[in-house]
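To whoever picks this up:

The nightly regression suite flagged AMP-dependent synthetase/ligase domain-containing protein as changed. Nothing in the input moved, so I suspect the structure step. Input below, exactly as stored in the fixture:
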Amino acid sequence: MKERGVTVEAGGDPGVTKRNHRFPTLLETPWEGAVTLAALFEQACGKHSARPALGTRQFIKKEAEISADGKSFEKLTLGKYEWISFKDAFEQASSFASGLVAIGHEKSEKCAIFAETRADWFIALQGCFRQSLTVVTMYASLGEDAVAHSLNETEVTTVICDHKQFKKLMDVNMHINTVKRVVLMDDLEGASQESCPDSVTWKLTSFGEVKELGKQQPVPATLPVPTDIAVIMYTSGSTGMPKGVMMTHGNMVATVAGVSQLIPNIGPTDRYLAYLPLAHVLELAGECVVSAAGSGLGYGSPLTLTDNSSKIKKGTKGDATELKPTLLTAVPAILDRVRDGVRKMVDSKGGLAKTLFDTAYRRSLIALEGSGSVIWGLEKRFWGTIIFKKVRAILGGSVRGMLSGGAPLSRDTQRFINICFGAPIGQAYGLTETCAGATFSEWEDISVGRVGPPAPHCCVKLIDWEEGGYRITDSPMPRGEIVVGGPSVTLGYFKNEAKTEEVYKTDETGMRWFYTGDIGQFHPDGCLEIIDRKKDIVKLQHGEYVSLGKVEAILVASSYVDCIMVHADPLHSYCVALVVATQGTLESWAQKENIKYDNFPDLCNKEETKKEILKSLQQVAKLAKLEKFEIPSKIKVLVEPWTPETGLVTAALKLKRENIKKAFAKELEELYT
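Regenerated output under the current build:
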């Protein structure tokens, strides 16, 4: 067995500590001199000056489409990607930096970026770094109270936002205390420039005007040092108000250094599809890694990702088809939807096409899991050419590798991506507090359910958690709470010393550690598997412990499940679940079984539907060898999807458990009666 993570001695609390097998010391910089994000970007732009850096799709038109039930849906027609070079990107960032000075922003003040992912977001970030400004980032999906809290707590004076977020700012302007200036990005969908009412004293300037001012009135760069705070990143958080994590330039550069070593042959010929929230550490770290390598960043969105995405006009191309990315980052919920969409397409064709697909998939799975790399390679080439080529075209047909992070990826989805897209998919594990990737699966590792060994810039330690019964002496593998140490571990939470002291510690050697609250186990080859989370464990009436997150990660593999929340009550001996149904799969089943219904909500309420979904959950649970008490005894089938906008999931599509419990308190109560 290949050793991927090696055991090392470490300071701090006793435990089992691993580091990456390829690097005897922790990496802090990707190359000499790249000690800050500003230096990293400047050097990459100099090295790759003529190559395409940032791409944005041409907007052609927007129109409303009325569905059969009378609902109106917005559809976009988008053209080709229009690119700016690394040289242009650097010049725009430099002009923007000077422009911020010209409109009155001072070095001691903080800037906030409050916008959906796009090229101007990245340019604004790099522009702020040219003047050593600390950037406050917030998810575009944050609610009004959270937006006001984040801006007030950090005393932001300049907000850089898009049109959609500008409207949110206006809605809470009476509750924002320190904002003086708003820089408004151009609307990508052709809307006219906004204006502030007389009651608002903010100085409103367009993004283009700020760049033009900076071009006319250039000022020397004031570059940061590694210990300067680059970003205060507000997490969307699954409970309470968001917390601001303070990341230094040194923290982020360490992540870039480590992750860059784990993507084989990353370089200028790669194209990366950037569509996840840039205010999330996974996407921010990903874009910094890709741009440092001289690869092109093509911007898109989850709603325009594929030809069948909800905002794409039928018959026109989605972002992936147009860009043909070679590298892709995704969260499991998006990959699950890709998987379900392909299966729906195959099932709808039926006949010989479905038989061939099922045969190809079955043979490929056997080859991948049991016949060795040579046989798998032959099967992949053969079936990839005649069966899976159309599936691969969904994501552009050129993807050579994917990264999944933010939540556990199901075994079924991981294998589906391996086979149908012919690409390795590396699972990563990390947190905002560790600047993203603390562990990262190696591409040639085809195992499922694991998140790989420690990245080259981190140590990962397991320590005993007595209360939960997890110990480093457990057999056959050491288990315990995951603690991450190294140069990417952040300073702590902004203006929250109590919470910082609770979960961050610096040992006698000077290494900083973050106590994650996640529970893991080390496999014999040094790879980490996430098996539990302290906060998600509930003790049932008869003393059994149920790990809600673990059970949810397994049950989401049911084709009927779009989202699921398992709920356990200490006063009962069983658990229940709220299930957001996958409409297409459920309607296909109803048609096959000749079940009559008026509309989708009517179908979800039928007893036959509940029984069918519950049976599917039980089958999935049995395959995963869940205990009987871990399997939901009753379910409530829900119609409306859970989105960040509804406040029921985070921007990374993790469940906001308390919000869901509050929103569906009546339904949960009924399940226990």
